[in-house]
Write a structure and sequence with these properties.
Layout (H helix, E strand, L loop, with lengths): L1 E5 L3 E3 L2 E3 L4 E16 L3 E5 L4 E2 L11 E5 L12 E3 L10 E20 L6 E2 L4 E7 L13 E3 L8 E6 L9 E4 L5 E6 L2 E4 L13 E4 L6 H10 L5 H12 L8
Antiparallel strand pairs: 1-9, 2-3, 4-5, 4-9, 4-13, 5-7, 6-10, 8-9, 9-11, 11-12, 14-15, 14-17, 15-16
């Protein structure tokens, strides 16, 4: 299995997501049956997946456990029940879904062949997202909530903002001061001269995009950077995410 994290945009269900995207995420509340209750979790029969009987060595029973208020890690789970988890008992009917929540994409991970998880459909791509107010922390080995936008769960993902949307990963530009830069990710700007400052001065001129850029691409970058500053893109992202702009290593 090939698992690869990508900084460039990746098309999922006709939509291209990339690291740095700010999304409003939700999932319609759907009626389910409670199959079990413990102090820390409520298990519900998951309505959107099917058991993958062909999975090699992985058995999923069709349930998903959601944390109660007694679970100190409850904040990392986005799905909620109505009524609240603490009020439920086995056999109850309730609703499960995600209220509108602002998140930002930490990484896009692709699996070829699709990942065996025990359920169907098998994920071909995960978006790792962080909640509003949560920044990437390199000290945490596994950070981010995994969602599969094409995996059966009817996520609603609204793109609120994409920093430097006029650029693509691998683009090379020259700034107002004549310095050449490579754009690898929203916070991954690399100056060819290795000098300071560490951000380009606008306007920018597109030099390279998978070879010689088209006149339309050159014009789009020039127009997008004809006013404003590099810092404006960063500040807008910080305003929406309430997080620090850090590129995963």
């Amino acid at each position: 299995m090939d698992s690869q994290a990508e900084s460039g945009a990746h098309r999922i269900g006709g939509i291209r997501y990339r690291a740095g995207d700010v999304l409003r995420m939700s999932c319609p509340f759907t009626e389910v049956t409670v199959t079990g209750v413990s102090r820390f979790h409520v298990a519900v029969r998951w309505p959107w997946w099917e058991i993958d009987v062909a999975a090699d060595g992985i058995e999923w029973n069709g349930d998903v456990a959601l944390p109660t208020s007694a679970d100190h890690d409850r904040g990392s789970e986005y799905f909620r029940t109505r009524p609240a988890e603490d009020t439920l008992k086995a056999g109850d009917r309730c609703l499960v879904g995600i209220p509108p929540t602002v998140v930002h994409v930490l990484a896009v991970r692709r699996f070829d062949p699709p990942l065996e998880t025990g359920w169907l459909p098998r994920p071909a791509t995960y978006l790792d997202v962080l909640r509003q107010g949560e920044s990437h922390d390199a000290r945490i080995e596994e950070q981010g909530y995994e969602i599969d936008p094409a995996g059966g769960v009817p996520f609603r993902l609204e793109l609120l903002f994409r920093p430097f949307a006029f650029l693509e990963s691998g683009d090379e530009v020259v700034d107002r001061d004549g310095r050449a830069w490579r754009f690898d990710a929203p916070w991954g700007w690399n100056a060819f001269d290795g000098g300071q400052p560490s951000a380009p001065s606008w306007p920018l001129a597109l030099l390279f995009r998978n070879g010689e850029p088209t006149p339309e691409a050159v014009a789009a970058v020039a127009e997008a950077t004809s006013t404003g500053r590099h810092a404006d893109e960063v500040n807008r992202w910080v305003e929406l995410t309430r997080a620090e702009p850090v590129t995963p290593a």
